Records
---
Amino acid sequence: MVGIRFHGRGGQGAVVASKILAHAYFKQGLYVQAFPSFGMERKGAAVSAFVRLDSAPIAERGDIKNPAVVIVLDFTLLRKVDVTRCAKPDALILLNCRENENHNPVKDSFRVAGVDAVKIALQHGLGSKSAPIINTVILGAYARISGDLELANLLEAIATGVPVNQKQNMAAAEVAYHAVFSISGELNADKNRH
């Protein structure tokens, strides 16, 4: 079983991203769960969302304790939230950050990658400068480094999972697929099989 944890802020689309990702893996024949974790949060507050996937039916419920993948939609969360808390020792960490911010803010033996999801989202007219919509963008980057998610399945899941601007979201995800960069550790997709 593979656990994926998203960290974002309310309104950034972490919950929608988890549902799209689960749908993409479902299209590949896996059993999936996607669910949020929030309480009294408001727009802008830290939120988490989770995806659980397996080749067999999933009976487990509850938050994912030891994720193999952590996807961070807001780089500033690194100052407030321990995004690597209880992650597996060789977990894949994907950050939304500019390439000049890739000074590896994540310690330990994690494999860390980045993508400038804000820049790509704005280039495709997703959201505004003050509130870019990056959830589908960061999923495109994840598809590149995951080693097990087919881009075609992700794009199909985006087409059915976002209520507006499907073509722009799909195009932005595809650009991000080619724009992801390594920050630390081995990111060879063939070695990233979960």
Note: The first helix runs from residue 14 to 27.
---
Amino acid sequence: MFLGTYEHTLDAKGRLVMPRKFRPKLEDGCYVTPGQEGCLSVWTPPAFEQEYARVMNLPSTDREGRMFRRIFLGTGTEATPDKQGRIPISDALKEWANLDKDVTLLGQGEFVEVWSTEVWSGEKEIAGAYFQNVEQPIGTGGQEI
């Protein structure tokens, strides 16, 4: 499980150093895809396989499903961390997430979000306000978490 927030930087070659705590889960490689709200998602192979199945279940007759699949799979990449725990981030993905140098990584349980630190600063304000005021998280169907 990926938990926590970590501040890191992209090196001159566009590689991201993953937190030491995350590295054992990524030893078998990972997948990097565009995420929601302008971040990236880093997936372990088993978690990616589950997400891939959900994406492939989007109807090909639905324009929104096709557009989502095009972005998610069309700009996603497969990566293997090097001995220093660095994973390459493609130019297309750096552009998608507005990544330059300073990045913030957020553990999301089954995957890791990678944000431009500047963008995350604004998004954190929005998420924090929501979190403080929510009575029941969306999607729980009235059940307690």
Note: The helical segments are 23-26, 45-56, 63-74, 91-96, 117-133.
